[in-house]
Amino acid sequence: MFLCAVGAGVTSLFRTPWIAAVAAMSTGTFVQLEPLNYRDGARVEPADSCGTEKAFEPATGRVIATLQCSGEKEVSLAVKNAKAAFKVWSKKSGMERCEVLLEAARMIKEQKDAIATMETINNGKSIFEARLDVDTSWQCLEYYAGLAASMAGEHVQLPGGSFGYTRREPLGVCVGIGAWNYPFQIACWKSAPALACGNAMIFKPSPFTPVSALLLAEIYTKAGVPPGLFNVVQGGAATGQFLCQHPDVAKVSFTGSVPTGVKIMEMSAKGIKPVTLELGGKSPLIIFSDCDLENAVKGALLANFLSQGQVCCNGTRVFVQQEIVDKFTEEVVKQTKKIKIGDPLLEDTRMGPLINGPHLERVCGFIKLAKEQGATVLYGGEQYVPTDPKLKFGYYMTPCILTNCSDGMTCVREEIFGPVMSILSFETEAEVLERANDTTFGLAAGIFTRDIQRAHRVAAELQAGTCYINNYNVSPVELPFGGYKKSGFGRENGRVTLEYYSQLKTVYVEMGNVESPFESQ
Ligand SMILES: NC(=O)C1=CN([C@@H]2O[C@H](COP(=O)(O)OP(=O)(O)OC[C@H]3O[C@@H](n4cnc5c(N)ncnc54)[C@H](O)[C@@H]3O)[C@@H](O)[C@H]2O)C=CC1
Ligand SMILES: C[N+](C)(C)CCCC(=O)O
């Protein structure tokens, strides 16, 4: 597995002491030593490489792993291996696949603390949040385990006793490409429906967060998937391209930025491969004056500061109705000041470091530009150095609240992907709808109001894939998640995702004689 200060010499994920050792690990101790690719049911060094990438512990700035980016040869081996596993897995019944996925879900639940700890070390989010992410991960496996046996077609009666039926069949080898903000959750949200439908998957995590997908791969193997059904290749853009361009890859599911999404779609178009694109956002959160203010303030914090604000569906444009904007702003600032920033592995921390140094600089650059364009920084927005000396080189900042914002400012138009909330005031429902929809993105939107008719009227008009009424950023696996407009298409979670990982075959059955215009007289 890997060696670390508390786990030296322990080599199997499945030995209880290993789990206990990882769960008890402290910041600044982890070093990844074992291979980070996974093929044919085991960790392997890649067969070839197209460069290296360094992965960090954002809390301390330490390098925890140097990755060999998989080259064309390694990608081809992973595809070949996945094809072989697909032959076995796709022949299994839904109930047989269900049993394996349920066992994998059980193992994730059992190892929740260890997985969450690894996620926190590599991503920087608080352990409190990482545990919630692991919950949404095993829930996803359980949910699709339950749906696996429901993959069924239709029987259609035709004239003369003939009939037709449809079969819902898997696609083959699917590729999952992930972002760094929810590494384990993204791997589960893609692989669970893919595997439930009978596909194989090759997953490429972001090179910033290579570690936790391997834990999932080991769990799948231990739970009983055929070797090769879930492979992991590591690397950045070049490795991603080898995957998307491979002729034996049937589908690509991508989570990441809009510019990369465009490239993925272009590459997939050349092979006529279906794609799912989960891209960025600049979502509106609309707070009407008749709302429950305490809940609206909680919602605004959830909409902006989870995972240090590095969340695609965050409601960063907070539109507040004129009458309550002062009261709301005062309360939001009061609650934001209370957020404890620091060592993400400590139980009471609620905000850890951002993913890396360049990203921290980028986010701070947005705040500087906002000030130049006339916004007021009401609170935060500064780099932060925790008192613990081991955290000195981590990538921390204080959560930021901007007021005096207007719709044309860069901080209101562009995705910042950091803890920066822009507050804007509005007067009427018609006005706020127009302004909320004035964006090229359409991932999510939120509404706080006590008026039930207004809530549904506004939800119907918002151009967004998910609308939250009187809450924000909750993501039950039963509900589909995905974008409108440039935030992408296709869905993750929910029953509908089975359609994105399968194809429909029509079978016609003739019960009479063939009637043909070419018959001899
Ligand atoms: N809608 C959603 O569910 C989510 C969207 N995002 C979006 O992702 C972005 C942040 O994530 P990043 O990792 O920085 O995004 P990114 O687009 O830079 O990278 C995403 C993944 O694509 C890979 N990649 C990069 N270039 C590629 C290429 N040419 N071909 C194939 N693969 C390539 C990367 O190595 C990484 O694994 C934000 O814009 C955010 O909004 C993030 C999480 C969820
Ligand atoms: C879990 N949730 C809703 C907070 C975020 C999921 C989408 C993402 O990966 O950013």
From TrEMBL:
Pathway assignment: Amine and polyamine biosynthesis; carnitine biosynthesis
Positions annotated as active site in the UniProt record: 278
Chief place of localization: cytoplasm
GO CC annotation terms, alphabetical: cytosol
SUPFAM superfamilies: ALDH-like
Keywords, sorted A to Z: Cytoplasm, NAD, Oxidoreductase
Enzyme class: oxidoreductase
InterPro entries assigned to the protein according to its UniProt record, in alphabetical order: Ald_DH/histidinol_DH, Ald_DH_C, Ald_DH_CS_CYS, Ald_DH_CS_GLU, Ald_DH_N, Aldehyde_DH_dom
CDD domains in the record: ALDH_F9_TMBADH
Catalytic activity, reaction form: butanal + NAD(+) + H2O = butanoate + NADH + 2 H(+); acrolein + NAD(+) + H2O = acrylate + NADH + 2 H(+); an aldehyde + NAD(+) + H2O = a carboxylate + NADH + 2 H(+); propanal + NAD(+) + H2O = propanoate + NADH + 2 H(+)
Cytoplasm as UniProt keyword: yes
Annotated function: Converts gamma-trimethylaminobutyraldehyde into gamma-butyrobetaine with high efficiency (in vitro). Can catalyze the irreversible oxidation of a broad range of aldehydes to the corresponding acids in an NAD-dependent reaction, but with low efficiency. Catalyzes the oxidation of aldehydes arising from biogenic amines and polyamines.
Quaternary data: Homotetramer.
NCBIfam families reported in the protein's UniProt record: PRK13252.1 (NF009725)
Family statement: Belongs to the aldehyde dehydrogenase family.
Protein name: 4-trimethylaminobutyraldehyde dehydrogenase
Organism whose genome encodes this protein: Mesocricetus auratus (Golden hamster)
Name of the gene encoding the protein in the UniProt record: Aldh9a1
